[in-house]
Each structure stands twice: as structure tokens, then as C-alpha cells.
Amino acid sequence: MNCYPFKQSLILVLFLSVFSVSTVLGAEKTLLDWNKGAGPDWPGWTWSDDVYNGHPGWTLNPDGPLGGGEDFSIYWGPRCFEYYPDFQGEGEDPDDGDSRITVTSSAIVDPTNRAPSTGTGGSLKVYETGTEVPGVHGVGWWVWYDGKGLGDRENITDSTTDRMSFYLRLEGLDLLSEEGRHESLPNANFHIGTYLCFEEPGDGRPPCPHETGNQHYYHYLTLNPGAWIHVLLDQHPQHLRESFVAGNNPSFLSDEEHYFENLEQVYMVTSSKNANETAFYLDEVSFFSTLTDSAAPNQNENSVTSLWVGYWPEQGYWEIGFNDQSFETGEGANLNDNTQSTFEVRWSTQPITNENFGAANTITPLFYGGEERCGPGGAHLIRRPNSWKTIAWTRFRLPQGTEANHGRIYFAVKDVSVAGGHVGTVWPWNRPSGDGRDAASPYVKLIDYFIPPDPDAGDKEPPTAPAELKALMVYEDRIDLSWTGAEDNIAVVGYRVFRNGSEITTLSGTSYSDTGLAPETAYTYEVVAFDAAGNPGPASTALAVSTLATTTETLVFPAEADTYVAAVSKSGTNFGNQEKLVVRNATNGYHRRGLLRFDLSGIDPQKVVTARLRLYRMTSEGEAGTATLVVRNLSGDWEETAVTWSSAPQAGTDAGSAPLVPGGELQEIPLTETIKGMLPGKISFTLDLGEPLYPWAAFSSREGDIPPELIVVQEK
């Protein structure tokens, strides 16, 4: 891997580090670097408009690099050709091939763009050539398509190889949301597919070049366009086609064959339907072993996987992301509201190890971090945006001048989760359950980044200060800000917003809504403009503003008793304190009804603003289809450990209903008027299902993982 010349003042330091930590700089074995060629001309490879089934691309010449191409019984390999992203039509049957939306692609060797880790050659540019549906865009490419594992091709990989490294730059993809709220981060918008084949697979499986069994995996990334991003894939993919991923190095767990040693095919694709035409650049694809080529031979392989980091020099910020695979159980990731986890990201201009991690510099996360989400002492910690998804992501800045004075930055991520700990103050990070587990590994996960040359090194003039900073609207938990744009000798590209002296966001516009604030609290805001060279201007005049006093409060009541009863042969059976509440609707009498009781003593019905019942429908429990969940009033006394179908009070009028949610999701039913009419005191409900007949479903009881709750918003 070739790097740009470092600043003269750093040459001696880095020269010494090579000898003092000989494995730090790595011994990557390059697979593809596009250091030669331009357009369709790629030395050692032959371009064709029809490499396979009408797809354009290259085939490796017999006398080409990497041992040359070979004529296998089913195809020529290796190949590098189009992989079209066939998006699913909205609302269409996923098994209906006619509902696919095809976007075609092509590629060139682009000598004008290269990864920041090399000073020679260009990169592979993959770009769109057409789309079936206007406004639906995406690109894909088979980067490597061979008939044997990489371990058999000039020993690119071996049994110790556990990292695939490359630099990636995206264009045209939809920007990630900068709201920083729960569920604002979408699913992965870029994924890498991998196929494995074994020379001696056994169990009647065909040998290479055929895919061995079901060895087709996916690595998921959630990325912003516009900058070179360093990606490190490990041996823990996020998905195995048609199944779950058993863990790190899954092919070894299933067949005692190492993942990267037997890798034969790799494709990359933008997996989201983007509004604008897209492209991606790929460079410096290589492999290495952390055992022999890293400062930390022991690293976290479970809760920090598919790690990446990128630097946007025009905006002067960094982004980092990864997937947390530590909650996998059974047939897939068992993710829910209680599977939160917490991480710490540190950086240094010298290599980071497990031993010196605590001495490295912390970041200040702009998204999904800080004490609001990570609890007291969590100013430098981050959490996953959504505990139901594995993706983690944040943005941050390094101190002024860091990038200008260093040619390489080292990063490390550590899982610092504590079961029940890191309870934040804003939903959903304030759930009292806190982290769902202790740290999955005591080790860090390492990645580095080479700083690209400054494209605007000659621009030293900063922008002016933004003017007329003011609060357009003030609420109990939100302040809407606006300001007049700054001026620059070339162009202002963005603004940094500071709250109480700490940066909270970066944006290109001249307005911002600061949400999740505390009521009756004073805040001070400043805004700083910056230009394309990263020069920050002076801060705006500070604005002091206080949020309004809240007039309501939210009360959460757990069920004090719950169970279910069954008709016919079970009419005399008490189901007591089981972990689920079963409901069923049947014409033959095999009904199941859930019973719940809440104690709302002391609640004034005149002050109730809203009330709703929240339940959790258990996964893999029930076949209710499109049925409706019905809540009815219940009069009379009953005891959880004694009530049966025969002794249960009769259900009263309907209190509320809602379409049944799928398994694994929260169900909410509005009950405002009913609650007002039943107060004060203890109130009971029964759960039932409407049409169609014969459905059934199970909800978590108060003895289960996610107990029922009655949520009441009342006036103070």
C-alpha cells in the first residue's frame, strides 16, 4: 500500500514506529488496485461488452496478473463485470420476478480518482447506464468472480487472514438523516456479497468452482456519499443467504474451512432506491491478518463488525460506523427494546493497542451519543440509533489542525456495555433496562485512515460570522433556530451549531431545530460558518433562550396482574403467572382471552389528556394474520393465580381496537375515553381478537421480557 509523503516533521516519528512496532503498518496482500490503465484499458485484463449474459466487464488474461485467468467448466475466471441491482417494486410480490426494477451499470478505470492511501494510479469507477423506472437509481458490480478460493491464487489469503481492506467513495446516494433521533437512520444502503467454494467440501457437495453449500454471505454498510471511506470487513458477515450467521468465521464453524481463504466471488451494490443517479469508486482492495499484521492481535470480532471510517475534508468532519452482531441467538438476531449496547471511539496519530487504548484521545459524537443517550459520564460514548437494528453510526471532528499535520490517523472502537447501565435521558435510550448485556469482548477493533491531500490548500481566508441568530419558535422540548448566511472569498459550504459551548450538528442550511431539550431550561447557542478548505469563521453573537415550562407529565403504569383463560376443555384451568398472554378467536369454542389489571389510584380523570395500552407481540407465536386486537372493559374481581374461563368476569363494552402488529413489534391501543370513564381506582381489561376466525397471538406478560404498560399523559 503506497501512501502520500508525510509532512517532513513526522518522517522521523513514523520511521521509528516501523521498527518499534513492526506489525503496525501491515503486510497487506493486494488483490486489486487499478494502479494502471484508463477507461476500458486495464493491463492484463480484456474488456468486452458481453462478458456474461449481456453484461459488460473484464476477464483476466491467461498470462495476466494473480496467476492469470482460467477456463473452468462453467465459466472463465476471474471476471470483473456488471451486477445489476434488481430492486423490488413497492408493494409487489417478492416472488414475482416481473416486479423487479433493473438498473444497468458499466465501469472504467478512472485515473483521476484514487484512494488517499496511494499516490499512484486510479480507481475502479462503477456508474449507471440506465434505469427502468425514472427516479430509481443504484449501481452494482462483480468486483471478483473466480473459480477457486483466494488462498489458491498466488496465496492472496490463508488460514490466518481475517481482514479485507478497501477504500470506497459513493456518489449520488441519498444522504443519511441528520436528525439524530430514534429510527432516523435507515437500513444499510451499501452491501457486499461474498461466495465461498472449497476444494474438498465433503458431504457430497461439489468442489470449486461451484458455490459450496449455502456459503453466500452479506456485509452491510450505512454510508454517506462524497468522501473516501476506509472499510475493513472481518470474518463476521451480517447475513447468510436463507439463514442466520452463526458467528465469526462461520464457514470454519460449519465446515472447518476459513472464510477469506476460500473466498471466490465478491460483488458490491448500492442496495437502496436512490432519487439521483449514483456511482461508486473502489480502490486498494487487499487482505491481511491481525495475528501478524496488526498492533493488536486480539480484537473484538462480535460486537464491532464491518467497521468503516471516512473523512470529508470539505466539511472538516469524520464519520464512523459498524454492526453489532453480539445479540445473535437461535435463527437470527434476537433484537428488541432491551438489546441496547454502548461503545467508545478513540483516535491517535500513533498506533493504538488494547493496552494503550485508554491513553488515546476520545471523540465527541455529534449523533447518537453523549449523556442524553449514554447516561452520566457518557459524553464521549455512542449507542446504536435503534436497538432493533445492528447498525451503529456517528459523526465527529478532530482538533483544529490535526488532519493538516498528520498523514495517517488511527482509530479504535471498544464495547463498553454494562448490563443495565448507560441509561440516558431521552427516548428510547432512557429505558430503565439500560444495556442488554455486558461488553461482548474486552478487546478493541482497529482501523486507520490516510489523509488525502488538501484540494484547497491555497485558501486561507475564513468566512465571516453568521448574523441575526434568533429563535423562531420555542417549545417545551424544542427550539427552532435561524440565522443569516455568512460570506466567504470562495464559498461557504456549511455551518456548525453549538449548544452551551459543545457542537451539536453540522448542516448546509441556515436553520436548525434542536429537539429533545429539557423544559424550563436555559440554553446558549452559537453558529460558526466554514468554507470548502475547512476554514472556520468567527462565531455568531451568542443567543440565550429558555424552553417553556411543561404543562403535562407522562406516567407509565405496569400491570399489577395479568394472565389468560381458555374455553371448552381448559375452562377450569388457571394459567397463572406464565410469560405470555394468549388470545384466540374460534367458532368452535376454543377461545383464549387475556386479562390485565392496572392500579390507577390517585389519578384524576379530569386531568387525563391521553391514555394508551402498550403490549409486545412475541415472535414466532401465533398465526393471527390480519386480525384486529380488541380491548374490552372488565368488571368484577379476579386473582391471577386462581381465575379460569368459568370464573372470570364477563367482558363489557369495547374500549379500543387496533390492527394486530407482526411478531416482534410493540402494539399500542388508544384508550383515552375509556380510562377517563373507569377512573379512579383499579381498572381491568380483557384482550380478544376480532375477525377473521381461528387466529391466535401471544403477547408478553408482566413475567415476560417486555411487560404490558398503561401510559397516561395528564395535566400537571
Short description:
The chain is mostly beta strands. The protein has six helices and 44 strands. Strands 1, 9, 10, 12, 15, 18, 19, 20 and 24 form a nine-stranded antiparallel sheet that branches.
Structural description of this entry:
The protein has 716 residues and is mainly beta. Helix content is 5%, strand content 39%.
Strand content: 35-45%
* Gap from first CA to last CA: 64 Å
**Count of individual helical segments:** 6
Most strands sheet: 9 strands, antiparallel
Structural class: mainly beta
Number of strands: 44
Low-confidence stretches: 1-26, 90-98
The averaged pLDDT comes out at 86
Helix content: under 10%
Q: Tell me the radius of gyration.
A: 29 Å
Q: How would the global form be characterised?
A: globular
Helix-strand blueprint:
Layout: H1 11-20, E1 29-32, E2 45-52, E3 55-60, E4 70-71, E5 76-77, E6 79-82, E7 87-88, E8 100-101, E9 103-110, E10 123-131, E11 140-145, E12 163-171, E13 190-196, E14 216-221, E15 228-233, E16 239-240, H2 250-255, E17 263-270, E18 279-288, H3 290-293, E19 305-312, E20 317-323, E21 342-348, E22 361-362, H4 371-374, E23 381-383, E24 391-396, H5 402-405, E25 408-415, E26 444-450, E27 467-474, E28 479-484, E29 492-499, E30 502-507, E31 511-514, E32 522-531, E33 543-546, E34 552-558, E35 561-566, E36 580-584, E37 592-600, E38 608-622, E39 628-634, E40 651-659, E41 666-670, H6 672-678, E42 681-689, E43 696-700, E44 709-715
Antiparallel strand pairs: 1-18, 2-3, 3-6, 4-5, 6-11, 7-8, 9-10, 10-18, 11-17, 12-15, 12-18, 13-14, 13-17, 14-16, 15-19, 19-20, 20-24, 21-22, 21-23, 21-25, 25-26, 27-28, 28-31, 29-30, 29-32, 32-33, 34-44, 35-37, 36-43, 37-42, 38-41, 38-43, 38-44, 39-40, 39-42
